Amino acid sequence: MVDIAMQGRMAAPAGAVSSYAVMRRLRSRDAGFRYLTRGAAVLVLLLLGGILLSLVQGALPAFRAFGFNFLVTSSWNPVTEVFGALPAVYGTLITSFIAMLIAIPIGLMIAFFLTELCPAWLRSPIGIAVELLAGIPSIIYGIWGLFIFAPFLQAHIEPYLISTLGNVPLIAPLFSGAPYGIGLLTAGLILAIMVLPFVSSISRDVFEAVPPVLKEAAYGIGCTKWEVVRNVVLPYSRVGVLGGVMLALGRALGETMAITFVIGNAHRISASLLAPGTTISATIANEFTEAVGDLYTSALIALGLILFVITFIVLAIARYMLLRIERRIG
Amino acid sequence: MKHLRTFAAAGLLAAAITPASAAEITGAGSTFVYPVLAKWADAYKKETGIGLNYQSIGSGGGIKQITNKTVTFGATDMPLVPADVQKNNFVQFPVINGAVVPLLNVPGIKPGELTFDGPTLAKVFLGEITKWNDPAIAKLNPGVKLPDMAIAIVHRSDGSGTTFIWTDYLSKVSADWKSKVGENTAVEWPVGIGGKGSEGVSATVAQTVGSLGYVEYAYAMQNNLTYAKMINQAGKVVAPAAAAFQAAAAGADWAGAKDFHVIITNAPGATSWPIAGSTFILMQAVPVSAADSDAALKFFDWGYKNGKQMASDLLYVPMPDSVVTLIERTWKEKIKGASF
Q1: Boundaries of domain holding A21
Q2: Hey, is the C-beta of A260 within 8 angstroms of any chain B C-beta?
Q3: Tens digits of per-residue pLDDT, B124-178?
Q4: pLDDT tens digits for B251-303?
Q5: Taking a C-beta distance cutoff of 8 angstroms, is the pair B103, B215 a contact?
């Protein structure tokens, strides 16, 4: 690097430039670059800290008024200004759980099909289609969900679920009630579609990184496709897969617009997955614009703070799991 | 480094060529009133060259912005109570009215075929009446064949002036509703599912057989939705129509109300539609800039007088002339330095 720089300098008509000056220039440039990148990284910390601080400050009146009860009560009454976060927290967790329950297996299957089984001519159309799913704005998912997907569920899927799973002991309450078409289940399904690309794209990339020699060895000793996936590909790539899953979960927890359209937006905790519910982000999006009064606004900001904490906990768990996996391997 | 300097220069240039326009009225608030304000502003700008910069961010945001004096006027679908108007040193006046209609999806029932009264609607929304063939509904609709079908309630999930008008009406006609639920832009609904926006409510109603919801009149008309008729305070059956809304707006006691704190639900008069309300403008009584304040007042004056047809085209209900006279007198009395 220095040589190249010096050659450039030597060619200049100005004549002799000491290598010391060139070195110094390069070093100061290097330092500048270091400070610039460090500044960019610190900026993230500052932003995050600032957001957290303003959330806490905004949420303070609500926490002062309701205390711990804010987390465990389910009343949400803007008229009497009594607020509790439980239905929103419940809805957020349940819809994300449904989404992950569906998106993880399907996403992994897509990824495995694309890397191992797919004929070459089909590989890129499917790959691009999956990535396009990630590019669709959430409002489009919301409108499609409300006008097309929810009526379809209401007419064909939900009555079937009620008449079959609705009679199975233990899980019967989950599938009871009238088929509205919109509700927790619909929201979870839409979320599953939305986070599918995160799971499958990242899994595909890490599956492709599995050294072919490992797989060939496994096939060589007579393993079936399933055994190769189960015993070679997944163990080798689990850190990456977990990363993709966590990214998907983060998106699911915070998703707003699509959910708002299909979840039914009722501040209630119902046993049934077919019943309307709400999530934290849907509540904020719905009510913030017309929220009049300090306590109401503060309660909504407090909801935002809770979502922040939930996301933080999820990420912390993910880090912990990664650490454990790495330690076990290493 | 050279690039950095170029960027800095470009930034300065960009800052220099986008100055704040002086000939612009600033406002923020209600999304409900936005279409009519936008249409007025368009015509007003052609006539006078003065534009309107209105942020339709919702009533709550509008109140916050006018409290912080970052805009010349705020617009809210729910009027502030006189104590709050006083406390903030605001002047409050109505600008336009809109009506809300019950919306339903019952097989075989056509638009306007079914009639409700207030107490019955309140009972249905409280979850006390659960079937379409309930005697209370049947009594109001002799000769209409009502099915033995569950009623599914659909309401707005987002905070909304429409919900305020709807719940204010139910509070006025039912003591039970007032004590159990009350009125606000969002309430704790005893039953039902929430749809986001008018489009969410009407889509849910359209998809759910046996559903009952509410939506702005304009939205119901533009989309040919099945609305119901109402029995008003005078005990007469009225259909939702411009004349019935006008009657409601004209029949209200604007002169007797402090700070125009009138919600024209359950209005008196034989021809009045009972579920209607207004959007209110909030301005500072001691404006930051008298010139800006005056410009806004001139715009509203122009709207009251020349914007009636435009408002009616959008299926809003213009303020009656008698009320406009009252409003403009209030401007003169209360807004400091108003050259009106």
Answers
A1: 1-65
A2: yes
A3: 999 999 999 999 999 999 989 899 988 999 999 888 889 999 999 999 999 999 9
A4: 888 888 889 999 999 988 899 999 999 999 999 999 988 889 999 999 999 99
A5: yes
Residue to test with chain A: of B193, B199, B205, most A Cβ within 10 A:
B193
Residues of A in contact with B87 (CB under 8 A): none
Whether B161 and chain A come into contact, CB under 8 Å, resolves to: yes
Shared domain check, A199 and A282:
yes
pLDDT tens digit string along A47-88? 999 999 999 999 999 999 998 889 999 889 888 889 999 999
Q: A141-151: per-residue pLDDT in tens?
A: 999 998 899 98
CA-based nearest residue to B193, from A102, A150, A301, A292: A150
> B174 and B118 in one domain?
yes
Q: Are residues B222 and B105 in the same domain?
A: yes
Task: Say what the ipTM of the complex is.
Answer: 0.70
CB A87 within 8 A of CB A278: yes
Residue B177 lies in a domain: yes
Report angle CA B100, A267, A63 to the nearest 5 degrees.
115
Distance CA(B254)–CA(B40), nearest Å, equals 24
DSSP letter for B324, please: H
Angstroms from A202 CA to nearest CA on chain B: 33
Q: What is the pTM of this model?
A: 0.79
* Parent domain of B208: 100-227
HEC per residue, B186-202:
CCCCCCCEEECHHHHHH
Q: How far apart are CA B297 and CA B291, in angstroms?
A: 10
